[in-house]
Amino acid sequence: MVRPRRLRCLFTDWPLYYITLCTHDRRQLLDRKIVHEAFTKFCLAASRHQITVGRYVIMPDHLHTFAVFGPNSISVSFWIKSLKNAISKVLKSANFEPPHWQKGFFDRVIRTQESYEQKWQYVRENPVRAGLVKNADEWPY
Q: CA 108, 113, 114 angle in degrees (round to 5)?
């Protein structure tokens, strides 16, 4: 009997998370410059909490991101709650009435390079599948 090769774990002490957040009732709130700016500002500050945010795509009604959480970082749940609050403040200031976010979020730890590449290709092509652009490189968010 031949046993399949065991997959090598890529991320152990610093897990890489694939995270998806959706707006309340899938409202189209997020595909705008002010949200993108708030998101990138928030993500740049994440390093203070041993979190590194990598690739992301912000869609009109949801966002996908990849983030690495260090061994002493804040929890994923706390970070997501803070992210939602930061973006909600910007949306309120632009006169978008709450609620802005669906409760909870989806997260998955990425364990292999193959899994990461599959998820990233899915995320990257999301604006194309939604008919927002013809080529993923055209999507500004």
A: 85
